[in-house]
Amino acid sequence: MTHLTLFLDSLQESSTPILLDGVSEQKDEILFEYVQYLESRPDLWHMLTLYVSLLPRPKIQEYYPNVLVKVLDDSERKLMTGQIRDLMPRLELPLLRKIVRLSLSAPSGSIGDESEEVMDKIKCNSLQWLLHQDDHMGDALICANILFRDLLLNEEEDKTYVAMTFMNDNLPENFLDLVRQTVSPIIEEEDENSNTVLNLGMERTVYTTKVDNAMTEYVAYNSYLEAYGTFEDWKQILEETPTALEDHQLPDATNLNETEKNIAKTNFLRSWVKEKKKHLEKTLHAAEEARLALHNVLTHPGGWLSADEDEFANIHRSDE
């Protein structure tokens, strides 16, 4: 029935149009029922995007992100992202933006019965929707910042470690470089009607401003998390550094003459000083690393003690 109504509807756009009253409306209703059937069959999800692409655009934007937010396997994400790019390129970024934001805003237990910890992992992994294509990196950065804010401002639990894990394990090491590389062609594009510009789903100047602000914000998070990590390393070293060198004891001098005792004592002191110096250097190095990292938090461009206040005075973080 679905394919019959699709065929009848297509006759309206044939070389010799045949108009049938009510076919388009019936097609949309029957097609949506079939799409819902495919949704109920995860083994048929590889066909889902094709039939969804035949729905009216408003219906696609309302319905499809709520389906795709349930896709947790990255290989399936990659497949469906490619299908969306091929079948409805104008909706690619708007759909992916909504999918990720739905994931990031989901409370615990909203996707199955996951715990808070599992839900955090799902949110971190949801960024993969925007990391498969280079030209999505700007949006990936904006969404990453949304998650950083959510984790670092959590008042019920300290999720700094989750934020550190997210940055280290889920985001590219050269993330900002990738963002700059992908935004440059957008800035340099002269044709306002090119696919590069039209596929953004918003005004080019709005998009580039959002990405510029997001890069500054990301630098702040990176500086803070690096400082947090190095400070924790320093504290760990302090805990592991012995306050007394129990293994260093004067040898038994019972059978030694005075000269031998002095030599043994001198060797002991030399060894003791060397060992203490090693622990001291390790502790001071860790302390200096922590100091520099904390200093970067305060003085990075736009930071609390930055001298470039005017340059960053108008930064806003409207991500929607």
Automatic annotation (TrEMBL):
Q: Which domain of life is it from?
A: Eukaryota
* InterPro entries from the UniProt entry: Nup84/Nup107 (IPR007252)
Major subcellular location class: nucleus
Give any Pfam family that matches: Nup84_Nup100
| Keywords of the record | Membrane, mRNA transport, Nuclear pore complex, Nucleus, Protein transport, Translocation, Transport
GO cellular component terms, A-Z: nuclear membrane; nuclear pore outer ring
Keyword Protein transport attributed: yes
Subcellular localization is given as: Nucleus, Nuclear pore complex; Nucleus membrane
Molecular function as annotated in GO: structural constituent of nuclear pore
Might you name a Gene Ontology BP term for this protein?
mRNA export from nucleus
UniProt keyword Nucleus present:
yes
Q: Which family would the database say this protein is a member of?
A: Belongs to the nucleoporin Nup84/Nup107 family.
The annotated subunit structure for this chain is: Part of the nuclear pore complex (NPC).
Q: What is this protein called?
A: Nuclear pore complex protein
Q: Name the source organism.
A: Fragilariopsis cylindrus CCMP1102
